[in-house]
Amino acid sequence: MKKYLPHICVLASGVLWGLIGIFNRRLTGAGLSVGSIVLIRNFGSMLELGVLFLLKDPKIFRIKARHIPIFLGTGVVSVLLFTLCYFTCQKLCSLAVAAVLLYTSPAFVVILSAILWKDKITKRKLIALLLAFLGATLVTGLWSGDASVTAWGAALGVASGLFYGLYSIFGRYALAHYKPFTVTFYTFLFAGLGALAALRPAELAAGFATPGVALTAFGLIAVCTVAPYLLYTYGLAGMDSGKAAILASVEPVTAAVVGVLAFGEPMRAAVLLGLACILLCVYILK
Q1: pTM summary value
Q2: C-alpha of 153 from chain center
Q3: Which of 40, 152, 156, 189 is the 20 to 30 Å CA partner of 120?
């Protein structure tokens, strides 16, 4: 069981990330913009982790000044820039195109891991990578004929995949010096402070005046941000970066299932086939 615990943690993080649509739709319905949701997610996670670790063990906050650039990488370059590029891509392209371009991230991680740490690009890993990407295209409905794309949107989509994948790269450097709790806190310290650039006090005040928004915001922070990042970072400490990035591809499958169960979206045959591809990918990497 201990051998597979990192795998289980990474898979669980993907599932929790896939639930984000439930919370985002409710916050958007309350009149909150993308910038405000990004602020709530990142700054709120910073506060929650800060309080949690202050009560648990203040030693978690100890880092060396020379390692700050690593956390600027995980927090600003990865978490913050990924979110901004991804949401902008969703505005310029269809949601299916944005989601599929985001899931170029495992390929970036596999290539960078091979360059930086000489991780082997095995046949098994390549097959799993192709299955994960194929599964994502099927689940998101890329082949439905409704896809639309612009050159700038496509560039931002690929950038979102790169920045998303860089968490696994910067995170691996950070984990060489610190435990997962410390890595996760400082990631969101910098992501949260950076997100203050999107602060709109009047919009936030109006949004939180809507009944249920505060609870929804807390769910976005605790369920879809703090918990999955802690799980993913812990799992990343126990396996190579490329494998972790591929296993996290269960996220779009979860999002598709949430769409069916929570929002009444139709369960297409392509979704089931995509699910099969990603489950096969997980089996190959076990």
Answers
A1: 0.91
A2: 19
A3: 156
